Amino acid sequence: MERSQPFLLINFKTYLEATGKRAVELSRQIEKVGENTGVKVGVAPQFCDIEKVAATVNIPVFAQHIDSVTPGASTGHVLAESVKAAGADGTLINHSEKTLLLVDIDRAVQLAKQTGLRSVVCAGTARLAAAVALSEPDMVAIEPPELIGSGRAVSKENPEIVTESVKRVRKVNRTVAILCGAGISTGDDVYAALKLGTDGVLVASGIVKATNPKEVLASFCEAVLRLA
Amino acid sequence: MERSQPFLLINFKTYLEATGKRAVELSRQIEKVGENTGVKVGVAPQFCDIEKVAATVNIPVFAQHIDSVTPGASTGHVLAESVKAAGADGTLINHSEKTLLLVDIDRAVQLAKQTGLRSVVCAGTARLAAAVALSEPDMVAIEPPELIGSGRAVSKENPEIVTESVKRVRKVNRTVAILCGAGISTGDDVYAALKLGTDGVLVASGIVKATNPKEVLASFCEAVLRLA
Amino acid sequence: MERSQPFLLINFKTYLEATGKRAVELSRQIEKVGENTGVKVGVAPQFCDIEKVAATVNIPVFAQHIDSVTPGASTGHVLAESVKAAGADGTLINHSEKTLLLVDIDRAVQLAKQTGLRSVVCAGTARLAAAVALSEPDMVAIEPPELIGSGRAVSKENPEIVTESVKRVRKVNRTVAILCGAGISTGDDVYAALKLGTDGVLVASGIVKATNPKEVLASFCEAVLRLA
Amino acid sequence: MERSQPFLLINFKTYLEATGKRAVELSRQIEKVGENTGVKVGVAPQFCDIEKVAATVNIPVFAQHIDSVTPGASTGHVLAESVKAAGADGTLINHSEKTLLLVDIDRAVQLAKQTGLRSVVCAGTARLAAAVALSEPDMVAIEPPELIGSGRAVSKENPEIVTESVKRVRKVNRTVAILCGAGISTGDDVYAALKLGTDGVLVASGIVKATNPKEVLASFCEAVLRLA
């Protein structure tokens, strides 16, 4: 299997620094760094911001979640078709801050496929990463919950979980892309993640809460290029 | 207490007929009927559609739900600030298709207040309507779940629940506006609802799934004027 | 309204110190202190322990939760009839460690009534205490979640929330008994709680995790008698 | 791999026919049929009934669910240690009427192991059966939700899902026992299930709601013996 080009996906969570107009601004900066370095970058803004972000930048835009509902009487739910119509290219599923029933993870992946959305399913352990890989999403993202937002990078604090995840996921699914996340905040963290066999990183506060997001992201991209 | 002007709130749910561009179109039609008749109308589109609907029409726009989270690390959640930044005037809370923990209903109402969003808290029984009225939202909406989408109007099928709700709500809260919903599909249903002491209706399929939504809404507005 | 005799309800949670045979032992000690002092005491053991506790001691036994399900196909749920058949006299509902949908709180209270179980509905704030009091349970229990297990008694740390709860609950329900809980660990805490107008306390770690539960409970009972 | 002896597990759900004393009675009948035929049978009564059932019969007793909590402050939750102390040999996990977060399924399986409980993890599709098999429970049970309680047996109505489940599960886990369930109500249904490569059945209404449970179970056991 040929190695796919590494992917850096920035999750805006519900940070005010990345809400509304600031979501658009930050997406622009991220797009710029991507263009400058040639590294593949994407963003995951809040639902209300998807459309204007997608209309502004030319990088992949992901929703942070979709519900496993089909069109109809589901007030307050996030419909795949709605996210897609707004311009999203994909969606996170089962982020550790929005964990789902097993049955809904699988349904959400299938709904994403049917709607033409790429799916990134998150999992907190190597075993669960393999479990969700069986649903054949486009990507899985390993994020040990205890390291999320900690500033201590999973790729350095707990490289075994990354290696083990890659091994277990590959055993059941040879093509899914594998991201890792949690605590990623420097280019070295990204470099370490890729060296461990991942195809990119899922990052949030490391970029969104940085004093200079552009600079930090540039160092991430530089790490990607260093590896190439 | 002076009677407030009746309010007709149209919930778009996750109907494809009211998703994406069709959400904007339908909102325009609704606005037009409101202008023509002078009756106060509002819409509750999906999260991804709030901004473009709010940018297009000059009627109140409500979210269908907000989560009881504050800005930060809440991937996949619906932040009051995000909904507000997109242009929403208010939000539904605890719709029977998105029921909440008691503690989260109250938190969501307070978050709405703090963010400058009006709140419409739904409840399925008279007793629960009174319970949520204690949180002092702007409106409560009585919707017996068994009648939702049934085409059999709560105001005709079960007028007692409406009367009883008004009575119980008024006992604990003299100022909250009281809507009712479920099965509302004709002007007569609306007329009956207002006669029972409510301040308006919450309606979904009755308008959204109608062959001619504009015509049906016009008949609703005509019923409001008949009463005045 | 005549003041009812104060009630001390000990919640065993899932503490190993109060699981299985140790649940029976602890219940015996609690019964003994109740007998010695004439103070009304009760226990809330885990589901599996209800029957043997109820068969052993002659004090009220409460379940820690019931689900709002009726007999039938509800695998893994806690049926009111099952709890009752095991010998329970009542049940906690909506404890802050097992919070429920608003609609399920109300249903659970009604199911308890229909099954002949007394209900103690928990709430974390004065407003929510009033909201649940509308369902007309036998008791409400005010427990600010932030003080639970803290060793800092609600009746001393936050007497206002107790006073305010009593006031708000009484406004909508004149007969429901009002307990308070969270951090209660000394006789003085109990005394303070009763002085604030409550009808008893809900306590867990203060008794269950005490080096000498019998002694601590005796001091609680002594506080009750001091007041009488 | 040697084929293990088939296992018939009867889930009592929250049926009144199998609550309290009737749970004990029914368990006795089930034990008797097991003794008479030499077929391995087990029961899954409600939490409150585990202890008296386990004290009465000499067949495996399963809980219907455990929560993924450890001893401590988890009011209203079902602790593995409590279930074990009551005499249970194992537990169902993720039944379609008590579905769990992916992360909690895995935790519950690990907690069961640590506590000495056997685990039967339920799944509604072949893919999900494989996913849960990665957690290495003792058994997985395939139950398409749409057939549960239908009287139309999964092994006859949808044999492909059973075959496919066996295939997918075996690919990732060679030793886990595989049950199937949903709609099983005759000996022929059981026979068909075993012929499809399963190691037994999970059955509820087919036995519990039968006019003569003993007779129906006897026909199930006869089907097992026919195969041997």
What is this structure, in a nutshell?
The structure is a homotetramer of 228-residue chains. With 228 residues, the first copy, chain A, is α/β, with parallel strands linked by helices.
* Uncertain stretches of 5 or more adjacent residues of chain A: none
Please, how many helices of chain A?
A: 10
What do the pLDDT scores of chain A average to?
Answer: 95
Distance between the termini of chain A: 16 Å
Strand count, sense and barrel status of the largest sheet of chain A are: 8 strands, parallel
Oligomer: homotetramer
Which structural class matches the secondary elements of chain A? alpha/beta
Outline type of chain A: globular
Strand content of chain A: 15-25%
Query: How large, in whole angstroms, is the Cα Rg of chain A?
Result: 16 Å
| Helix residue percentage of chain A | 40-55%
What structural keywords apply?
homotetramer; 228 residues; alpha/beta; 8-stranded parallel beta sheet; 43% helix
